[in-house]
Design goal:
The complex is a heterotrimer. Chain A has a domain of 138 residues: Peroxisomal Thiolase, Chain A, domain 1 (3-Layer(aba) Sandwich). Helix content of chain A is 35%, strand content 18%. Chain A is built from 14 helices and 11 strands. A 9-stranded mixed beta sheet of chain A has the order 3-2-4-7-1-8-11-10-9, sandwiched between helices. A two-stranded antiparallel sheet of chain A has the order 5-6. The two termini of chain A are 17 Å apart. Chain B is built from 15 helices and 11 strands. In chain B, strand 10 and strand 11 form a beta hairpin. In chain B, helix 8 packs across helix 13. The longest helix of chain B is centred in the last third of the chain and has 17 residues. Chain B is globular. In chain C, strands 6-5-4-7-8 form a 5-stranded antiparallel beta sheet, with no helix packed on it. A 3-stranded antiparallel beta sheet of chain C has the order 2-1-3, covered by helices on one side. Chain C is extended and about 75 Å long. Classes of the chains: A alpha/beta, B alpha/beta, C mainly beta. Chains in contact: A-B, A-C, B-C.
Chain lengths: 388, 397, 171
Amino acid sequence: MNRKVAIVAVAQTKYEANKSSLWQGDVAYEPIEKVLQQTGLTYQDRTKNGFGIDRILTAGEDHLVGRTCNSFWIHHYLGAYRMSQDNISGDGAFAVYHGVIDILSGHYDTVLIATITKESETSRAAAENCYFDHIFLQPFGLDYLSASALQARRYMSKYGISREQCAQVAVRNRANAKNNPYAQEPLDITVQDVLKSEMLASPISALDSKPPVSDGACALILTTEEKAKKITDKPIWIDGIGNCRDSHYLGDRDLSDCDSLVMATKRAYSMAGITDPLKEIDVAEVSEEYTYQELLWSEGLGFCGKGEGGKFMEKGISRMSGKMPINPSGGILAGNPIGVAGMARVVEAATQLRGEAGARQVEGAKSALAHGYTGACGQSHCVLILRK
Amino acid sequence: MAEKVAVIGVGQTPGKRSRKDVSEVELVNEAVRAALEDAELTINDIDVVIQGNMEFFEGTFYTDQWLVEGLGAYGKSGLKVNAAGDTGGTIFASGVSHAASGLFKTVLVVGFEKQDEGAYGGIGMRSEDSFFDIAGGSGRAIGAMWGTAVSVIDRKSATEELAAKVRVKEAKCGSRNPYSHLKLQLTEQDVLNSDIVIWPLRFLHICPTSVSSCAVIVAPEKEAKRLCRKPVWVKDYYCIHSGLQPRVGEPWLNLGAAYPTGPQFRWGVEQAAIALYKRNGIVNPRKQLDLIESYSPSTWHEIDYYEALKLCEPGEAWKLIEEEATWPDGDIPYDVSGGVVSTNAIGATGLHRVAETVIQIRGEGGERQVPKDVNLGLTFAQGADQFCTAAILCKTL
Amino acid sequence: MNVNSNQEDLLTVPHRLTASWREPAGVFVNRMLLAMRDKAELWAVKCPICERILFPPEIVCAMCKVRIEDKDENWVRLGNEGTVLKFYHVTGSREVDPSTGWHPKGQTFNPIGLIMPDGGNKWTVMAHVLEETDTSKLYDGIRVKAVWKKREERQGLMSDIKFWSIVEVEK
């Protein structure tokens, strides 16, 4: 990398099922205002010395707001006037990725990234159905849940992953969420609770899944090494980034594989110089809307071999007390809206490395992995490596 | 920029009202193949694929995910960027950023719009805030264009007759461009007789809704020099957001016509031009620029932009028109491709402007090639009165 | 390949998105709309830094990029009359029926005024319907007043104002 890129501030709202009195701008502005206050930064057009935010990125999608040009509705809240502002149509982790690219290009120095989604305002399943190829897949009425059920089935039957192993993911994530003041739905549940919960799309039951509706937003500011050192004594460096797209058609993939995650991970690890992730990563924030995904993505992220996701879970490495805790925040399973989810992972990872994670802090964490995905069954993945 | 970046390949599909013979996947594939052929590369030579379109118009959620095979994006890095109508310019800027980052060797940028698949009118309707709907009559996007049109009349920058003259020029240029959607044979009288939509905007002044795709390949300096005989360099680019209207949405976009800053369409273009000129030593754009490919969604925008781009003094656009300075054989050829009034496939349009500038700089414009050496070109894309992404392209570094 | 097909047919697949979106007005706008609904009053906010008076009210000033505090002194009551800064009349376009996405035929519209209500400043511009359909009777700067629906018909939408009608100037 020709320049070092640092996160200098992060903020998020509490995730809730329905922020019913707040319009999306009100929700978005809360973390934006916080990161501006934390850094004392304003926007380049408002400064005298030109030292300010010179680029703004969001990660919205038209179907989620029911309007075209989704990002321009909140332009005031983003502080977009007179600025360069763009929207990444994908998970928020990809917006952070693009922010890094923008700074590496030398064209921008300081990027504000903000994501907001109010699932309470939209019909998410109707939008998801529009993701699928209109000719072959959409007419089946697929949504992310039903497609994920297909993937879960394939994965579990190929490698003998059990529902119990998947359920352990829910138990751990929901329990971790109790330590996270931003979490929507921390729960004290057992494996039996998960197995007995209402079946949504076999083998995925209600407690195998994130809460059906989440609202929330997060924001962060990226800048160059030189500027970061002026703003904060806790810059968190983004040492590696990688993303990748897989085939669209579910039948063109073996759904028990996550090839695009493997590629994205390889790119990020290579950039960050990581060869032994379990040794070199202290904490991981991984995006998973359904429990089986943590097991499958663990394989793609190189935490274990192919088909070993279930065994990896049982080894306890990913517990809070383990060598490499996964999702001390509780992750998406405790409630995060689409689009915001992957960026919330980055925010959580940075919070860990800043030592500001309070009750969910992983002691002495110096390096973190943050991950997000776009598209059903993880069609595209994005991985970022953060270091103190 | 950290690295110098050049355009090493361009591909376009001809604009059409409708392309029922292809799916979205196949449409983008046509442009991608054309760009690869132009660059003499294969898809295996591409590292990253950036895509853009305005997803609601086709009703495809996270569009780039479906298009993977058509884009050749399988297994590669990439993502989708979109803002509004400037999407074509915005993805170009994103592509240039990716190329300048030092992480990639070749970047494929693909924009498209396939509006025959969606209810454009209905979606345009949904570009309105739910609470401030004034129950119809706003004119939607066309109402926003009205602001620019009426400001041209108010400033006496041009008359309706001069606007008709410009429209005929645009049509002639469009007719010479094989990729143009509209290839109209127009007389000034045709334009003056055209139905009034919102005075002074007439039906013929306004861009069509088109279906097309455009692909552009960019690369950092070392790769560009290695791979391409005629790289066209990206000298600089600039993005600016111009939105001041609360709760944006048509009819609220039209507010710009009454604002102290004037129509925001114009303000954004002017700011982008000022910034780029200052950074690149352009003090007399009419003389120093060789070509402009603009995002003028109506004839009136073209005229307004003559002044916003400082090609003449405020209120004097009429001089440029009478002198035919912006004609293909004039001082500062403007939209020799026929421009947006000839083709507007929103997600592609901004990128078509880049492609056409590249073609002119290379001297490969065929029937539409301007009769002079083109060294320095200005191109920009605009969206919804809010976004402007502009770039300066040049033949030699 | 010898598939028996009629090369002329271009098949399409119907794709209908049926979804609904529901959004809250937001903190300031909610209050403003309730004042319209309940009291036929128009309220705006003023940014204390640039002093632009904004309608509809926003919690952040787009130019100053700071929060506009929810304090009484930042709320500005707008008058029931105003000045038309500019107006336009859609004569040739057709509006869209949002439930079908298509253009119904035979539509006519009233002219739209970009109105600065009294109590606002040059940044307070509201787009709304003008009662007068004969545009030869309208001019930039004409004075208009808001004509409200009856209380029971008002819902907390901009259409709670039926239109703005010309204020006859005393000669």
